[in-house]
Amino acid sequence: MTSLYSLLSETNEKIDAHLEVHGCEIVFLSRGGKRGTPNQRNSDYGIGLRLLLQRLEAAEIALDRVWVDSDRVQNIPEDEKEIYGETDQNLSSEQCFTLLSGRMKLIGRSGDASIQGGNQTKRIRFKLKGNPSQEKLIEVLKLKPAYKNAQIRKRLHADQLNLVTPEHIWNAVESLIEGKVKHKFGESTDYDVLIDGVVRLAPKAVFGVAASEALGFELLPENFSGGLKSQCFRILEECGYEILPKELKARIELTSSPEREWIEGKEKAAAHFKKERALGLSCAKKAQFKREHGKLKCERCGMDPIEKYSSELGEACIEVHHSKTQVKDMGEGHRTLLKDLQCLCANCHRIVHREYKIEK
């Protein structure tokens, strides 16, 4: 079982440096927050990392591999975020400290970033040789269970954040717009999530409320990072939402994509469509349908796209249809509920709209 621990100093006092033990792997948590504020986290990062390396060396527990494990680099190939490997064996603990500190600041940075910058206090994961037991690691590293609030304050792992679905994001957006949810996230500082082409919400608030629903407990701002390349922003964008710098106005796109036909009830000039669907609506409905039925299929003809095309790529032919109120009949500010929608294959979707025209 994974547990969160504090490192003890040489005088057996807890220091503000925390790590997780996953069997024979160690995750050393990142430093964050301004020192001296309630949001500070793992302020003794450098001291703790040195002690960790010194104690592993003293116990003759060798490093196998070390890599950056922060949520911003989860999409980077594993070999590209490695900061200690096969060619770095037999270094002293102090040499390891210098090596890890220098290499971790380069991981996940843009190509035009200054060589002088970079974060040397990232979340990193150690794979150890010899498969030492968790009990042995607790003993030789001088670990104590962390204080109660540390578990709440720590950054969540990417695997936990990946449990957030488009349905969770949609529910969070609806709750925030309607003022139905209380949260501890402040106003955005640099970026906004654009809703219906008009409303702007704080990205961390949207994702935090969504993740709280997905994980079953209230998330705090310290539990995950925001900003460009963060997992928070990536998931929001994958769910169909546009994230804009605060000073930038929304783009008006001309598109014939059935996934982006309408913003609810808002007129716009487009090549083939007069109104476009609320961003994220299609993703949310599909996620809800899969949760309730186990897979996507057409609600009219029953076609299973994965079975028909022998690939998950087949799901692209399932589209979301407004079955209760047609888009052209929606007034300004109309809000659609997921229960008002249907999942239809592309063929059935087009037939339904043709039937509407004939009825008229």
Annotate the secondary structure layout.
Layout: E1 3-8, E2 14-22, E3 25-28, H1 45-58, E4 63-68, E5 82-84, H2 93-104, E6 124-128, H3 134-140, E7 143-145, H4 148-153, H5 158-161, H6 166-177, E8 191-195, E9 199-201, H7 203-215, H8 231-238, E10 242-245, H9 281-293, H10 305-309, E11 318-322, E12 341-345, H11 346-359
Antiparallel strand pairs: 1-2, 1-7, 2-3, 3-6, 4-5, 4-6, 8-9, 8-10, 11-12
Helix pairs in contact: 1-2, 6-7, 6-9
Count helical runs: 11
Distance between the termini: 63 Å
Q: Given the C-alpha coordinates, what overall shape results?
A: elongated
Overall strand count: 12
The whole-number mean of residue pLDDT values reads 82
Unreliable runs = 148-152, 252-277
Provide the succession of SSEs.
Answer: EEEHEEHEHEHHHEEHHEHHEEH
- Helical percent range? 25-40%
Find the structural class using helix and strand composition. Answer: alpha+beta
Cα-atom radius of gyration: 25 Å
Give the percentage of residues in beta strands. Answer: 15-25%
Q: Spatial order of the strands in the main sheet?
A: 5-4-6-3-2-1-7
